[in-house]
Design brief:
Phosphorylase Kinase, domain 1; 495 residues; 6-stranded antiparallel sheet; kinase; 3 domains; 5-stranded mixed sheet; alpha+beta; Transferase(Phosphotransferase), domain 1; Prot_kinase_dom; 20 strands
């Protein structure tokens, strides 16, 4: 019989409760106090940079510190922090419950009265956090545990932001789940109690309608829905719909407060909604005003920030029953043409080795690709041009002469496990054309010279090599630019 593993000479690991890209959660027995606990173990996959591991460790410590400042029955208690043999562990209250996302997935849309009771408990946990100067920043169904007796626990304060604590990112990216972010956050304002309440409104809508009201097939379309498409409520009771619309008021200064939401939720739970007053005009959903092109470009630019920071936004298990995130086919034909800001994307016949890659032509990079090696990241520059069959192996300072610049990158399936199957060339090409075109619109007006640009997508071999310890494969798409006459660039074009 295999000997049970013991952590810190105290916690005996009994069974695995869950596993994600960044670690494992165990059911464990605290031998000192004789109680069952959940032990969260940080266990990043091979190939994660040391700096990123340090950020993940700090997030776990932040979760412990944040939970330690809160005393509320709907907040998961953290008992202990352990560092042993180069790994970090959190010993936490064991909650034998499914998360709200799983409840909805397995059992369908929730009854409005039941959900009002859940929302009241989450509201209490948020009240406690906000009173302590803490903003959760990632309220969503998968972070709400619901026990069979109806008791609720709000979990994962790992990215919570104390109002006197700098935000924890390595690249300045916004942290959180895009489908639950408020318009004020997408416009660049700091996370606040009002943005947590917006996320609670989205969560309530998701639970009673059975689908997330804003989640779409890409981050860009999700952001567009948040800012332009009021939620369609078909199953929510009129009283709960009033709460949802109030919490999803676009202007945070006019958004329903926690006290106002509580005053409406309590009668729903008690079954006394007949005497509720009419909804104030400020909470009546309005059709959004048409956005100016400048605002649309700003929104897309912010989408790039979200995607750039998405590696730290958490990893959700892929739901095999929901294939809307991306197709799973392995198509080999390029996607349809898309209108760019300076012309259409072209799809010429295969290029001979040594030929320059044209502007607005999707190419592949990585193992077996048109550009077989790619070593740039961020917004780095290289002296090389994009040449069929030639790799881009080293970066040079953007302040000096250079041939190309990586001006944006995105991880289309950032919230899925690395093991997610290759979505296919067609889907990746379509995503990349739209994404790089919109990103180029932000840069082009400020350029002094005519520019060429294109998008690079990973080959399937590159995608599938994510766990290669020596050279991890990349699962991102890349947007690259250069001078149209292929003379040297000088200075970064990304502000």
């Amino acid at each position: 019989m295999q000997q049970q593993r013991v952590v810190a000479n105290r916690y005996t690991l009994l069974a695995e409760l869950g596993r994600g890209a960044m670690g494992v959660v165990w059911r464990a027995q605290d031998q000192l106090l004789g109680r069952a606990v959940a032990l969260k173990e940080l266990h990043p996959p091979q190939g994660v940079a040391p700096g990123e591991v340090a950020v993940m460790e700090e997030r776990m410590l932040r979760e412990a510190r944040t939970a330690g400042r809160l005393n509320h029955p709907a907040v998961v208690t953290v008992h202990d922090v352990i560092r042993e043999n180069g790994r970090t562990y959190l010993a936490m209250e064991l909650v034998d419950a499914a998360d709200l996302a799983t409840v909805v997935q397995r059992h369908g849309p929730r009854d409005s009265v039941w959900m009002a009771g859940v929302a009241l408990q989450v509201l209490g946990a948020l009240d406690a956090a906000h009173s302590a100067g803490i903003v959760h920043r990632d309220v969503k169904p998968s972070n709400i545990m619901v026990r069979p007796d109806g008791a609720v626990k709000l979990t994962d304060f790992g990215i919570a932001q104390a109002m006197d604590d700098p935000r924890l990112t390595t690249n300045g990216g916004i942290v959180g789940s895009p489908a639950y972010m408020s318009p004020d956050r997408l416009h660049g304002f700091e996370a606040s109690p009002a943005s947590d309440l917006w996320a609670l409104g989205v969560t309530i809508a998701h639970a009673v309608e059975g689908i997330s009201p804003f989640e779409r097939t890409s981050t860009a379309s999700t952001l567009h829905a948040i800012m332009n498409e009021p939620p369609q409520l078909r199953l929510a009771s009129p009283a709960l719909a009033q709460v949802i619309h109030g919490l999803l008021t676009v202007d945070p200064s006019r958004r329903m407060t926690a006290a106002q939401a509580r005053s409406l939720l309590v009668p729903i739970v008690q079954g006394s909604t007949a005497q509720l007053p009419p909804m104030p005009q400020q909470f009546v959903p309005q059709q959004p005003k048409k956005k100016s092109p400048a605002l649309k470009v700003a929104a897309v630019a912010l989408g790039a920030v979200l995607l750039a920071g998405a590696a730290f936004g958490g990893y959700l298990a892929l739901n095999p029953e929901n294939t809307s995130a991306a197709p799973t086919g392995d198509g080999t034909k390029q996607g349809d043409q898309a209108q760019g800001s300076s012309g259409e994307w072209s799809e010429p016949a295969a290029l001979p080795i040594g030929a320059p890659l044209p502007s607005r032509r999707i190419a592949t990079f990585g193992r077996g690709g048109d550009v077989p090696e790619w070593n740039l990241s961020g917004t780095q520059c290289a002296k090389d041009f994009l040449i069929q069959g030639s790799g881009v192996r080293a970066n040079v300072p953007c302040e000096g002469p250079h041939g190309i610049q990586l001006f944006s990158a995105a991880t289309p399936l950032w919230d899925k496990p690395k093991e997610t199957p290759y979505p296919g060339l067609v889907w990746l090409a379509d995503f990349t054309k739209s994404y790089c075109t919109e990103q180029f619109k932000v840069i082009e007006p400020n350029a002094k010279d005519a520019l060429g640009f294109t998008g690079l997508i990973p080959t399937q071999q590159e995608w599938d090599a994510w766990n290669d310890a020596a050279a991890p494969g990349r699962q991102e798409i890349l947007c690259v630019l250069w001078k149209a006459d292929r003379s040297p660039l000088a200075g970064s074009l990304v502000g």
